[in-house]
From TrEMBL:
<dbReference type="Pfam" id="PF12838">
    <property type="entry name" value="Fer4_7"/>
</dbReference>
<dbReference type="InterPro" id="IPR010226">
    <property type="entry name" value="NADH_quinone_OxRdtase_chainI"/>
</dbReference>
<dbReference type="GO" id="GO:0016651">
    <property type="term" value="F:oxidoreductase activity, acting on NAD(P)H"/>
</dbReference>
<feature type="domain" description="4Fe-4S ferredoxin-type">
    <location>
        <begin position="33"/>
        <end position="62"/>
    </location>
</feature>
<dbReference type="GO" id="GO:0051539">
    <property type="term" value="F:4 iron, 4 sulfur cluster binding"/>
</dbReference>
<dbReference type="InterPro" id="IPR017896">
    <property type="entry name" value="4Fe4S_Fe-S-bd"/>
</dbReference>
<keyword id="KW-0479">Metal-binding</keyword>
<dbReference type="InterPro" id="IPR017900">
    <property type="entry name" value="4Fe4S_Fe_S_CS"/>
</dbReference>
<feature type="domain" description="4Fe-4S ferredoxin-type">
    <location>
        <begin position="68"/>
        <end position="97"/>
    </location>
</feature>
<keyword id="KW-0411">Iron-sulfur</keyword>
<dbReference type="GO" id="GO:0016020">
    <property type="term" value="C:membrane"/>
</dbReference>
<protein>
    <submittedName>
        <fullName>Carbon monoxide-induced hydrogenase iron-sulfur protein CooX</fullName>
    </submittedName>
</protein>
<keyword id="KW-0004">4Fe-4S</keyword>
<dbReference type="GO" id="GO:0046872">
    <property type="term" value="F:metal ion binding"/>
</dbReference>
<keyword id="KW-0408">Iron</keyword>
Length: 177
């Protein structure tokens, strides 16, 4: 094919590249972009903070001790995906939004934040991070009994109830022998 024919064919076909940044562009499903955090599904286990390769995540107690603040700095994030991989409740996930370019002066505005409000344990009244259904359904599946029984009970009370019910069961079994 002559060079002239190639030029004419390409002119007829039009541009072969994306119009970005003047128009939309394609992003593959697996692209690791900006991070979305859902405080309603978070159990404050701090695993994401622990595994974060870039040290981009901080979970700190609010000054008035009413809950926990979650902060993630996108300018420090390496988009490695470890936080999403290790999060037990899928409260943190990477999106395909790659628009992270910003001026140096704006770096503290490129954050993802969230707040987990403490609730009172329904047994002892201690302030606690709510036990979210994402965690309970992961532990107990569709079992409504235990899911309801452990709702909004602090760690200590859950442990105590589990131990007591275990001891009672064992005692009943022993007494039948
Ligand atoms: S993607 Fe990696 S670097 Fe970014 S917040 Fe998650 S663990 Fe940290
Ligand atoms: S986002 Fe996930 S890994 Fe991070 S503290 Fe919450 S539950 Fe744990």
């Amino acid at each position: 094919m002559s060079f002239l024919k190639i030029i004419l064919r390409n002119l007829r076909k039009g541009p072969a590249t994306d119009p970005y940044p003047f128009g939309d562009t394609f992003t593959p499903d697996g692209l690791r972009g900006k991070i979305k955090y859902n405080p309603q599904a978070c159990v404050a286990c701090r695993m994401c903070e622990h595994v974060c390769a870039g040290g981009a995540i901080r979970i700190t107690e609010a000054e008035d001790k009413s809950g926990l603040n979650f902060t993630l700095w996108h300018n420090t994030c390496a988009f490695c995906g470890l936080c999403q991989h290790y999060c037990p409740t899928k409260a943190i996930r990477l999106t395909t939004d790659f628009h992270t370019a910003h001026r140096q002066a704006d770096k503290y505005n490129y954050v993802e934040t969230g707040f987990i409000k403490y609730v009172a344990c329904r047994r002892c009244g201690q302030p606690m991070v709510p036990v979210v259904k994402e965690l309970l359904s992961r532990v107990y599946g569709d079992l409504e009994g235990p899911t309801k029984a452990f709702e909004n009970l602090c760690e200590g009370c859950r442990r105590q109830i589990s131990t007591e019910s275990g001891v009672n069961k064992r005692w009943t079994e022993e007494s039948k022998r």
